[in-house]
Amino acid sequence: xxxxxxxxxxxxxxxxxxxxxxxxxxxxxxxxxxxxxxxxxxxxxxxxxxxxxxxxxxxxxxxxxxxxxxxxxxxxxxxxxxxxxxxxxxxxxxxxxxxxxxxxxxxxxxxxxxxxxxxxxxxxxxxxxxxxxxxxxxxxxxxxxxxxxxxxxxxxxxxxxxxxxxxxxxxxxxxxxxxxxxxxxxxxxxxxxxxxxxxxxxxxxxxxxxxxxxxxxxxxxxxxxxxxxxxxxxxxxxxxxxxxxxxxxxxxxxxxxxxxxxxxxxxxxxxxxxxxxxxxxxxxxxxxxxxxxxxxxxxxxxxxxxxxxxxxxxxxxxxxxxxxxxxxxxxxxxxxxxxxxxxxxxxxxxxxxxxxxxxxxxxxxxxxxxxxxxxxxxxxxxxxxxxxxxxxxxxxxxxxxxxxxxx
Amino acid sequence: xxxxxxxxxxxxxxxxxxxxxxxxxxxxxxxxxxxxxxxxxxxxxxxxxxxxxxxxxxxxxxxxxxxxxxxxxxxxxxxxxxxxxxxxxxxxxxxxxxxxxxxxxxxxxxxxxxxxxxxxxxxxxxxxxxxxxxxxxxxxxxxxxxxxxxxxxxxxxxxxxxxxxxxxxxxxxxxxxxxxxxxxxxxxxxxxxxxxxxxxxxxxxxxxxxxxxxxxxxxxxxxxxxxxxxxxxxxxxxxxxxxxxxxxxxxxxxxxxxxxxxxxxxxxxxxxxxxxxxxxxxxxxxxxxxxxxxxxxxxxxxxxxxxxxxxxxxxxxxxxxxxxxxxxxxxxxxxxxxxxxxxxxxxxxxxxxxxxxxxxxxxxxxxxxxxxxxxxxxxxxxxxxxxxxxxxxxxxxxxxxxxxxxxxxxxxxxxxxxxxxxxxxxxxxxxxxxxxxxxxxxxxxxxxxxxxxxxxxxxxxxxxxxxxxxxxxxxxxxxxxxxxxxxxxxxxxxxxxxxxxxxxxxxxxxxxxxxxxxxxxxxxxxxxxxxxxxx
Lengths: 407, 535
Prior knowledge:
Helices cover 54% and strands 5% of the residues of chain A. Chain A has 19 helices and six strands. Chain B is mainly alpha-helical.
């Protein structure tokens, strides 16, 4: 009877071989993304996105027009003078810095100690020492170490970046390279680590995806990367991100839903610029149709003075449904942002040029008569105005300023 | 030699010849040994058959789970591929999916779409799996206790404790059946047979392609392995003897083989990761059926009664409580307390232990010194058993369908909670606009199936592949939270299906708003359409 239970050495060896071979073979048969996911799950570590960053510099989405009838050089100069970054260096708001950077770029030099230059703006965001010098020890640094990535602290707190990935998108629009050093309070990293972390923790159904889409597209389009896996193992693609941006009611989204439109337009431009490998042909067409409808709503909702109301998405019913007591700065937001995306939109999406001129006129007049302190208090909105008008002259605020300013 | 009939048996009627009726008891049974069964087997089968016919053979199919699985299965059959990302939900596109139940889903879809089987086939399959599960445990208890009555008690108790889980037809039922078979094997003396080296790993291979509960099977195998060593150690008080237990080492090797056998599935090693991931998924925690087991639940009350009876039986029973049995009861009981869904594993284990100790206690009570001898096995009983099986079959929906060609109407084959009328409306109506539909998750599977690809639901019941934000938003909507409209706007939802039973607050809010109009109503549901469609 005991003999029946006896296990031979050959049996033991065979089982061990089968066991080892089965698990080894199964591991090798897994796709790399799945291997990474399983490893991260077992080790309870953070999963890095499965992208190799071969491209180091962000793409540029430039304006398609240079129309002096929209804004003259003098008018542009006058507007830009009001939106140069003249912030106090104490308790410097990251949101202002980000808006200034995206408008003025990371190389802007104003030759004035009263104004914060592009490098200084960049340094404030990417060097925790500079940030702490401004905010002291009462606020958490804006850059936080997250495993081998760098996370940006964002939220409603004025000492933080306000919108998710807005900092990253601003730096991308400012032209900051992935090799740019980044200094947290305990280590040195690079912009690549910031982008990597953003890709990792991106979730398609979070509240705001406008800047994530823009930032990722600017950095990844040149290397024709159209999809990756996030920390949850979800395959994220620009198709999905575009669909996500188009999904909600048009009234939803930051800045009256206009940032969604800008990001979609940028995506379309980048797709065309980089061999149509960023999004599928069907999605390209879908975005175009969405933007066409947006253009029609914009056209129908424009007020007689040329401005656009906050409820531009109501189209021809905008005046009737609008809130007559809506604050003026909301019109500035709507008008400035609409002009901005239209400046990078192709002719096929343009409203009649006369409408653009009227909107630009309204904005220029508004900026000219608005006291500087009001503009400073609403810098984020007015920075878009400056950028939009510069784009309609086929330039950027920094480029125009450099050409116009005496040495 | 002519057989004589006793005088008393003769009637007064002179027409009956005295030498005509042979004595059946003298007939020689020429059936082969493997064909013979005992009257106890027949009784055992009778009990199972009655359960099958009364509760499952024609029972309406529960509306949740079933249809999602059929939808996934139909997709697998249609495309010939097992998807690696979620294929049916627009909001879950790109979400990784390790379909551990692909085999069961494809099977369910094949049965459903088969013209010969259909819904009746699913009902039959459901019943068969339940009977297989409880039958395996009952058989194990019978073999271990020597009492067919306590074997029948075991399966009855298993059925009673796991009643609610058995109501829902889903691939998990296959897992429960396999678990019961494994338990039966572990608790009887089968573990010494050489066939186990092949059959057990083969069972795990099949199991891993049918449902992710193979992990519970491996857990049970591990528990019995550890229990074996511990048992020896405790009894002999010798570590050396414990570690040299050959049966224990045999179980170790079998555990290794079965763990490796699981890898023979389309997802390979990823199934292990998936099992770990699903159990801890935040969306799962919001499902009431994964809540801890409490006395407020009917199954909690049943489990409590079971636990009490078990304690009594163990107290009275003269039979030694084996360490592997004890560990199994404690482990599965602990799991059940953690999540009520785990009662699927506690019920068979505790039913088995209750039965065998109950039998021992009973014998002690009645001063029964030895087991009652099994009646002689005969081919006759096998024929009777087969006849019973045929009778039971004929009473099921499938039986009626097969023999008489009468297919029951869907309203009789499906649970009353299935939104049949709504489904009919949706198949005829062309009023569903583009975009997402928000509907109760337990209805989505059925509505997707009847409406086809034109129905784009926000969620379904496969919550572990739905993004957390989406599931959280869905729950808020279903509960009629204040930001319901904001959620609809955010997700671009133009079409809303509500349940009159579970969405009262949401219905009140929608009715109070001016942005939606009512387009359909029946006893179960109200459907709303957004006036100004989001495009």
